[in-house]
Design a protein that fits this description.
Order of helices and strands: EEEEHEEEEHHEH
CATH architecture of one domain: 2-Layer Sandwich
Structural class: alpha+beta
CATH superfamily of one domain: Caspase-like
Number of helices: 4
Protein name: Caspase-1
Helix content: 25-40%
GO biological process, one term: proteolysis
Strand order of the largest sheet: 2-3-4
CATH class of one domain: Alpha Beta
Pfam families: Peptidase_C14
InterPro entries: Caspase-like_dom_sf, Caspase-related_regulators, Pept_C14_caspase, Pept_C14_p20
Largest sheet: 3 strands, antiparallel
Distance between the termini: 80 Å
GO molecular function, one term: cysteine-type endopeptidase activity
Strand content: 15-25%
Length: 200
């Protein structure tokens, strides 16, 4: 039914909840390992052409290894002693990949150049990074070689990221031996400015 999408679904949402292990695999009830990538690829644009223009959302609730998060800090609370602040080791990361796991990219600079150009052109008008990423994806698709790219982002953050331009300060370091020349240069500069004001 999904191959034809007769009901014209707008999106596909798959929720996987169970046991998992390293390598992003689902552990089945009979102890077999089923890679999440294998499930995901069943719905890719080649195998499921009817959903190629639909968002495919995977919500996956499984273990991805055997590591246990370490206690990041211990907070001293007035009158209560110490309280553990359990923060996952990998909290606060945003990973942006030029393509998905297992794939090559063609033009090695296309992604980097597009990221740079998008950030430079959009950060001054307050675009959040998430919106910039959408533009990066769109711009790459329009360019030659864009079919090699499938920009992937993974994050463990709970906030939007925006860029702000820092105020720059101009600092001149002058050696003591150059001080006399520097003074002369400043005097000449002021004289030019003064003459320009008088003549205009």
């Amino acid at each position: 039914k999904l191959h034809k999408n007769k009901k014209q679904y707008d999106a596909l949402i798959i929720i996987i909840s169970g046991h998992g292990d390293e390598g992003d695999v689902l552990v089945t009830s009979d102890g077999e390992y089923l890679p999440i990538d294998e499930i995901k690829s069943s719905f890719d644009c080649n195998r499921m052409g009817s959903l190629k223009n639909c968002p495919k959302i995977f919500i996956i609730d499984i273990c991805r290894g055997s590591n246990v998060p370490q206690i990041a800090s211990v907070i001293q609370i007035k009158g209560k002693g110490k309280e553990q602040n359990n923060i996952h080791n990998n909290n606060g990361f945003l990973m942006i990949w030029s393509t998905t796991k297992g794939y090559q990219v063609g033009d090695l600079s296309l992604f980097s150049e597009t990221m740079k150009n998008t950030i430079i052109s959009k950060y001054k008008i307050g675009y959040p990074l998430s919106q910039m990423l959408r533009e990066v994806r769109e711009n790459i698709k329009k360019k030659g070689g864009g079919e090699w790219y499938c920009v992937e982002s993974q994050d463990t953050i709970d906030y939007d990221i925006s860029f702000q331009q820092r105020k720059r300060s101009c600092v001149m370091l002058i050696q003591k031996s150059d001080l006399t020349n520097y003074k002369k240069w400043i005097i000449r500069l002021f004289e030019r400015i003064k003459n320009k004001i008088i003549t205009s």
